Amino acid sequence: MTMKKLFFLLCAVFISFGLSAKEGYFSSSEYSLHLNYNDKVYPGDAIIINLDIEQKNCTECRGEVSFFTNSIKKALVTTPFFQTEKEGSLIAIIPLSSWYEPGDFHVEIRYIIGNNTPMVFSLPIEMLAKDFNSETIPLNPTNTAIKTDNSTTRVQQIDRLNQILDTWNSDSVWQKIPFTPPTTATRRTSFFADRRVYAYSNGSSSTSLHYGIDYGVPKGTPVYACGTGKVVLVENRISSGNSIVIEHLPGLYSLYYHLDSMSVVEGQMVKQGEKIGLSGDTGLATGPHLHWEIRLHGLAINPDFLRETWPYF
Ligand SMILES: [Zn+2]
User: What does the alpha-carbon distance between residue 76 and residue 258 come to, in Å, rounded to a whole number?
Assistant: First the structure.
């Protein structure tokens, strides 16, 4: 590709984005490109980019996306595209921290065909303001002991979970429609990204972020997979009790904590809406509830966002 053509591509994408904030088109005699993405986001959401490229020799096409705040040159997050079954159709999902302040951000897409010079283009992102709850949770001596447990077993459990959540399998494309709730109950007792203070029974305290949504359900309530995927963890953990983790897309996982019982095994495929266990109060829990959490590239994101927004397959 000549530099002139590359320059033209950049201009074309910028111009079409000026007209329509969510979609861009470009076509030439060699290839055509169409992309869309959500340009207005809240902290804790994700940016979903669908990129469709028609090109004669797309066997070695690959791309990645980096996310920047406009004031700092270093990327905050970088993630590869993954391929769908449709030829030339690529998807990237970028997790957004719930700590981001409102303002102007951008994503930079680098797309490479074979050994050619990468095409690089930038898309504007507007981070909107969102308020999160603050709460103080008193812990009894038992829960204080769990929260302050530094045993080798607990450290190993945390390491294993983090290793799973950081795994990006390009072929793990299981879920193609938005998530559904993990329970028929709707009463929530804690919300995504609540800013928490744990008040220990010994008088000290610690701060933390609530990574998921808590449903106030009695012990024994059926828990359902929020999407189709592969069960990658079934374990009784010190802090989260009986826990299940399901992989849905490359780098995208759902987590279910404090279960009374679990009816799936590691390596098993489950369908969206399939029963995976019963809710309970195992691990660090001040009462029976279901904790439902979503992780993308290791970062906790708002589960409600993926009930409403999903890539095009
Ligand atoms: Zn919770």
Answer: 32
Confirm if 292 and 256 have CB atoms less than 8 A apart.
yes
Residue 181 contacts by C-beta under 8 Å, 6 or more apart in sequence?
Answer: 224, 226, 292, 307
Please give the model's pTM, rounded to 2 decimal places. Answer: 0.91
Q: Which residue reads 């066997």 in tokens?
A: 59
Surrounding ion ligand 1 within 5 Å at CB are 214, 291
**Nearest Cα to 280, choosing from 166, 156, 154, 183?**
183
Q: Where are the alpha helices (DSSP H) in 126-223?
A: 141-147, 152-165
Distance of CA 211 from the midpoint of ligand 1 (Å): 7
Residues 38 and 103 in one domain: yes
Q: Distance from the CA of 42 to the center of ligand 1, in angstroms?
A: 21
Task: With CA atoms as reference, report the closest residue to 122 among 107, 110, 100, 112.
Answer: 107
Shared-domain flag, residues 13 and 155: no
The continuous run of DSSP H or E covering 8 comes out as: helix 3-19
Q: How far is the CA of 169 from the centre of ligand 1 (A)?
A: 27
Between the CA of 88 and the centroid of ligand 1 the distance, in Å, is 39
Check if the beta carbon of residue 23 is closer than 8 Å to that of residue 36: yes
What is the three-class DSSP state of 160? helix
Listed residues 94, 127, 160: the one ending a domain:
127
Residue range 89-117, pLDDT digits in tens: 899 999 999 999 999 999 999 887 767 77
Structural domain boundaries enclosing 142: 134-308
pLDDT tens, 75-84? Answer: 999 999 999 9
Given 3-state DSSP classes, what are the helix, strand and coil percentages for the chain, each rounded to the nearest 5? 15, 45, 40
Question: H helices of 20-151, where?
Answer: 141-147
